[in-house]
Amino acid sequence: MKPTKITHIALGSNKGNKLQYLQSAIDAVFVRIGAVKTISKIYKTPAFGFKGDDFFNACITVETELKPKKVLKELQTIEIELGRKSKTTIGYESREIDLDILFFEDESFEEKTLVIPHPQIQNRKFVLQPLLDIAKDFKHPVLNKSIENLWVECRDTSEIELVDILLKHPNAAYTFNSYNYIAIEGNIGAGKTSLTNKISKDFNAKLILERFADNAFLPKFYKEPERYAFTLEMSFLADRYQQISDDLSQLDLFKDFMVSDYDVYKSLIFSKITLPEDEFRLYRKLFYQVYKDIAKPDLYIYLYQNTERLQANIKKRGRNYEKDIKDDYLEKINAGYLEFLKSQQEMNVKIIDISNKDFVKNRADYLWLLEQISDASISKE
Length: 381
Fold this sequence. Notes:
By secondary structure, the protein is α/β, with parallel strands linked by helices. The chain is built from 12 helices and 13 strands. The protein has helices spanning 18-32, 68-81, 125-135, 147-153, 192-202, 217-223, 225-249, 266-274, 277-291, 307-317, 327-342, 363-380; strands spanning 5-13, 34-39, 42-45, 55-64, 98-104, 109-110, 115-116, 161-163, 181-186, 205-208, 257-260, 299-304, 349-353. The longest helix is centred in the middle third of the chain and has 25 residues, at 225-249. The protein is elongated and about 85 Å long.
């Protein structure tokens, strides 16, 4: 996954349906720039530096993979799409929407078209007031003072009035966090761990990741599958049981739901492929004895990718013990999953073909995938 950074963005509007302009801007930032983490309250303030209608002002924090200049470009595009026209005067003037980068992490950046931190933050209460809601302890990287301190020291005497309306979080459009436990499954290299991490971070979910990297038998299995297949599957049986039973029993009051990059029933799918028939029958008996009381996920997502894409992803992540995985092995795994899922009448299963998507690099693909998952939630209700 790409590294992300937090940016603080100011929003203002004093033309037309000001509330709708603010909401539309936040929704567009979510789509074009990154996950909106926090949203301030709305404050009404008089026009600053010119005569005009009162402004509605707010601030948001956004987690983004974009560079500062790219964020600026996207903000300008959003302004244009929401109807803002080019300036007709030299000074300030009324506008449908105004979007400004205030901070970008603790970085300092100065070019002709962009200065970070914004040079007027400390002088504008219509910026400092909403910033207090979401980042009062954040320190200005140049002035080395918290937002709270800057507010106290600010000489701006403008009147500020709280607007008794809250802006909606863009995450509200996705309904899958109504579940307690979601499992993201897929073949080797399908992207299940990447998606699980992104959902956990963006939707305040407890993260459950399979500890496959700690399994000492996995590299041995890929070198000598017939010799180590049963040992590998038994070790996974024990490890997965211990981990999932611990994680599912430990509630986190500060998280909205749980999301995992595996489901315990994958043990049956892989063991049916790797083990001889007699060993598989024995393994299956042991499996059902061990997992008879383990809760099934409320929503089971299977990420399907074709073999070509799987191999490309495996090669890209560069795990030495995976380099010799054959196409037919991956195809057997895909077939095993699909056969298993067709038989699961009681589970809420959604199979999503992402062979032509790259949700890690392309935010539009990621949002498309979230919509597919959300649709699965709605159809079940």
